[in-house]
Task: inverse folding
């Protein structure tokens, strides 16, 4: 695109950045005892090679209470050599590089900070950590400011191009800023002016330390989304104060970790929070960066062109495809693998204190060990199954120089990704299926659809090796009446292969049952387009529109034998899906077992008491079993084969992608 706004240079202070794509700081869980590792360096070097204009790493600690040892350390001089290696690795590939400094405050976990008690402006318990922090004294506040300054000095000494201060998301600086967490009665509490004091003290002191020419950014909220906390107006006032204090650019974040407004999941529309960046951009004269759910260069380009922001932060988008900037610049956007906002490899891993990986990109976090290299003995490979495991196996094998044919028994590639993309707000799983399918074609892989593979076809093709990615089939539980005509499988519902009545009972409250319930509950609701039309034209009052947007035409009940609904859904996503189920009026019955299905409904045992749930349709979401009919025959005939994904063991889409890729690489 001529004069593409996404690829125009921009200056922050005296630093020229070649394009408007920012990789914001992400907690990667890749350090050891705060030390930068080769794994972290390899990860960021790959993103720099891919063409990101500015990469911000972090967050980095400012003292031993500010974060755990799996994050980047900046609180001691011993960390400077590792920081310098990281800075050099990024800058050597043409990107500008900064470090984000942060103090976690009451979000710090005592077990990660040497069993010390976390600190905060006031001793109020954290809903996120279930711990109560200790209130900082005035002397300690000064010490924390000095710690930020010393850490900034180390960042500058290590050769980074600038420093960013995290002043949002519910961490220490935003805890001082918010009346929810700051109940002090001294000069750091009370009025907004006083609550801003700590953050302004930090940036003024850093500015004095690093000098006027060293770029200084602040990542701050545009809205905390915390009832009783800071909204847009207070934060816009804070933004102006930061500019006056010497900050060179503002990186606009959204929400606290405790906020009940979804921020990162797939149901959040792409680019929706850019209005917050716009509100701040209209009030300051320094560059403003917008982030959250900007996972496509088209959206980033439009936001910049429309004056919503000056730069676009694309974090998980670059986790999924580090070459996104390069592809967008060179007219190869159709080759991009888009982030699907699943959280399975990134945020879910962080909650489990595991290094960050990615569902969409099996090489993320494994850049060196999973690099594809040409085989010394190229072979003919047959991949059976065109779902996420099969497509990734095929791509890995062809990346190693093998000749690959991919067979899929249905009419298109995608497998269970197409089912996962059926519920409202989960459509991006379908986009991943399309992204992978395009990559398969572009890689020159021969694709045969509408063809079920049997042993005779394998013998006819005579491959050197076979990858079996044949997936799974849904289970049918031994419930009396399960063969009734009004009983259907959840997979058929999600594939839109069957019709359901006005009242539905879903048997099974795992991930598939929850997704199916959401899919059905959305039937008959107002679309986003329809909602906007009626709202703009004031055709109905907002309260009525809300009701019509959240309550459809079906009554849906989910029954689950265990005491948890959605047990197999990742932490990042589960709470939002549960919130949606409640909002849409889906009845959830835990510790409830289906005893019999009749023509009029389902007889159940609910907490030891029998009852009856009338319904028009019964949907089975009772699990799946591996489907792998070929492996035994292939092994018997001495044909080399590997299995991957659900064909081996039922798992998540993350597992299918990674196992498929590993199988494709194992062929030598």
Result:
């Amino acid at each position: 695109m001529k004069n593409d706004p996404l690829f125009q240079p921009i200056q922050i202070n005296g630093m020229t950045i070649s394009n408007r794509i920012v990789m914001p700081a992400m907690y990667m869980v890749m350090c050891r005892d705060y030390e930068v590792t080769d794994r972290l360096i390899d990860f960021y070097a790959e993103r720099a090679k891919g063409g990101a204009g500015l990469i911000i790493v972090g967050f980095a600690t400012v003292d031993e209470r500010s974060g755990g040892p799996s994050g980047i350390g900046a609180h001691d001089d011993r960390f400077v050599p590792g920081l310098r290696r990281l800075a050099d690795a990024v800058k050597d590939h043409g990107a500008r590089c900064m470090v984000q400094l942060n103090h976690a405050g009451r979000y710090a976990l005592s077990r990660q900070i040497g069993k010390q008690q976390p600190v905060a402006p006031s001793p109020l318990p954290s809903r996120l950590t279930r711990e109560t922090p200790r209130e900082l004294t005035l002397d300690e506040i000064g010490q924390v400011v000095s710690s930020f300054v010393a850490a900034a000095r180390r960042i500058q000494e290590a050769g980074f191009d600038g420093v960013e201060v995290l002043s949002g998301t519910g961490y220490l600086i935003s805890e001082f800023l918010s009346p929810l967490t700051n109940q002090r009665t001294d000069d750091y509490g009370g009025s907004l002016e006083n609550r801003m004091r700590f953050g302004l003290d930090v940036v003024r002191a850093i500015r004095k330390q690093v000098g006027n020419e060293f770029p200084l950014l602040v990542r701050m909220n545009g809205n905390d989304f915390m009832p009783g906390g800071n909204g847009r107006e207070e934060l816009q006032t804070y933004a102006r104060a930061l500019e006056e204090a010497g900050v060179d650019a503002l990186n606009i974040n959204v929400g606290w970790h405790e906020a009940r407004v979804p921020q990162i999941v797939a149901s959040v529309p792409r680019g929706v929070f850019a209005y917050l960046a716009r509100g701040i951009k209209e009030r300051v004269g320094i560059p403003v960066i917008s982030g959250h759910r900007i996972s496509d260069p088209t959206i980033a380009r439009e936001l910049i062109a429309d004056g919503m922001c000056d730069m676009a932060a694309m974090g998980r988008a670059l986790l999924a495809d580090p070459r996104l900037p390069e592809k967008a610049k060179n007219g190869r956007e159709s080759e991009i693998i888009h982030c699907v906002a699943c959280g399975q490899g990134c945020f879910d891993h962080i909650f489990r204190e595991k290094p960050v990986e990615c569902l969409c990109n099996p090489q993320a976090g494994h850049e060196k060990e999973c690099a594809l290299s040409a085989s010394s003995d190229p072979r003919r490979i047959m991949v059976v199954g065109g779902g996420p495991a099969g497509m990734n196996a095929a791509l890995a094998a062809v990346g190693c120089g093998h000749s690959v044919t991919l067979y899929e028994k249905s009419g298109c590639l995608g497998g269970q990704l197409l089912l996962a993309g059926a519920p409202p707000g989960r459509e991006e799983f379908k986009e991943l299926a399309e992204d992978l399918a395009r990559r398969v074609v572009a890689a020159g892989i021969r694709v045969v659809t509408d063809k079920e593979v049997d042993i005779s076809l394998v013998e006819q093709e005579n491959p050197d090796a076979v990858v079996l990615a044949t997936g799974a089939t849904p289970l049918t539980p031994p419930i009396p009446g399960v063969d009734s005509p009004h009983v259907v499988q959840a997979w058929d519902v999600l594939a839109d292969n069957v019709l359901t009545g006005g009242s539905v009972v879903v048997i099974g409250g795992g991930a598939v049952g929850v997704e199916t319930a959401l899919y059905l509950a959305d039937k008959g609701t107002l679309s986003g387009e329809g909602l906007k039309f009626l709202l703009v034209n004031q055709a109905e009052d907002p309260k009525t529109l809300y009701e019509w947007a959240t309550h459809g035409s079906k009554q849906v009940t989910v029954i689950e034998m265990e005491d948890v609904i959605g047990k197999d859904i990742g932490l990042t996503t589960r709470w939002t899906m549960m919130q949606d189920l409640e909002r849409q009026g889906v009845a959830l019955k835990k510790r409830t077992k289906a005893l019999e299905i009749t023509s009029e409904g389902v007889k159940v045992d609910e907490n030891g008491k029998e009852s009856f749930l009338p319904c028009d349709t019964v949907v089975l979401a009772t699990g799946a079993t591996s489907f792998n009919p070929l492996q035994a025959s292939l092994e018997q005939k001495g044909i080399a084969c590997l299995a991957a994904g659900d064909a081996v063991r039922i798992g998540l889409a993350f597992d299918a992608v990674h196992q498929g890729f590993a199988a494709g690489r194992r062929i030598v």
Observations:
- The chain has a mean pLDDT of 96.
- Residues 138-157 form the longest helix (20 residues).
- The chain has 22 helices and 28 strands.
